[in-house]
Amino acid sequence: MNQFYTHRNHIKILLLPALLLALWPGMATAQPGQINISRIEMMPNEPAPYNVRDWKDVAIGYDAFVYDLQASGLYLPLVFIYNSTINYPQQESFGLDSYVGTNNSFAGEAINVLPSLVGASLLGIDKSNQNGRNWLLMSQDYFNKANNEMIYLNNRSSGSGSDWWYETMPNVFFYQLYDLYPPIGDADFQFTSIANQFLAAVRAMGGSDKPWSSASMNYRAWDFVNMQPNAEGVIEPEAAGAFAWILYHAYKETGNPEYLKGAEWSLEFLNQLSSNPSYELQLPYGAYIAAKMNAELGTDYDMEKIASWPFNRGPLRGWGTIVGNWGGFDVSGLVGEANDNGNDYAFILNGFQQAGALAPMVRYDKRFARAIAKWILNLANASRLFYSGFLLPAYQDGSAWSQANDPQRLIAHEAMRETYNGLSPYATGDALNGGWGNTNLALYGSSSVGYLGAIIEKTNVDKILKIDLLKTDFFGDEAYPTYLFFNPYSLEKVVELNVGPAPVDIYESLSESFIATGASNTVELAIPANEALMVVLTPTGAEVQYDRNKMLADGVVVDYRQSSQPFQYAPRIQALAVESQEVEFGSSATIYGTVFDQDSDDLMYSWSSNGGTIQGQGATVIWEAPDTEGTFEIILTVSDEQLNSDTDTLRLSVIPEINLAPQIVELVKSQNYLTPGETLELFCNAFDANGDTISYSWSADAGAFTGEGNQVAWQSPLTEGIFNIGVEARDEQGASSTVTTSILVKVFTVVDTGHLIAYYPFTQNADDVSGNALHGQPFGAQLTEDANGHPFSAYFFDGINDNIRVANNNILNFKDAITVSCWFEPRLLPEREVFVASHGSWQNRWKVSITPERHIRWTVNSSAGPIGDLDSRLAVEVDSSYHIGATYDGQWMALYINGELHSYRPMAGDIRSSPVDMMIAQMLPDNPDFNFRGVIDEVKIFDFALTPGEMKEVYEEGLVSAISLPNRQEGAPALKLSPNPASTELFVQYPAMNEKRAFFLLYNVSGQLLWQREMDVPAGNSDTSISIDVSGLPGGLYFLGMRSNASFLLGKFVKR
Question: N or C end: fewer C-beta atoms under 10 angstroms in the chain?
Answer without folding.
Answer: N
